[in-house]
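RECORD TYPE: protein structure
NAME: Transcription antitermination protein NusB
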Amino acid sequence: MTASDAPNSRPTRRSRTIARVAAVQALFQCEQSGDNAETVLGQFLRHRRVSPTASFEDGHIPDADLTLMQEIVRGVTLDQDKIDHTLSDLLPEQWPMTRLDPVLRGLLRAATFEIADTDTPDRIVINEYMDVAHGFFFGDEPKMVNGILDAVSRRNESNT
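PREDICTED:
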């Protein structure tokens, strides 16, 4: 049993970070395969969350905060049109959503959902997704993520 499985336990920072990485991967899988969120979440829970000794580096998610992962994936898929509209307004004209790397699209969608629809402080969401971006990208993408998420946060604050 992992900390995220124990009743009444608080998820650790690491378990929440792993959940965010897994959510980005699941959103990527939804887009690439055409499968719906529930199908992909089921696959993740069956095949990627194996034993507690399984390694995150091997593509498994034994320590992930599964509640958070599922909330993000379901939330993004339910609000994707609204999220994409927000992101499209903030992206440079020469970089429409369709031109973005699909992993980057998933990352931006997940972070935008969390900023707009959860109680997690925006600065924590932005920092976490910056860490995720650095895990996937080695070019200018993390800088772009930071700028876009900062703009999402400012827009969200002005709308509340």
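COMMENT: The mean pLDDT is 86.
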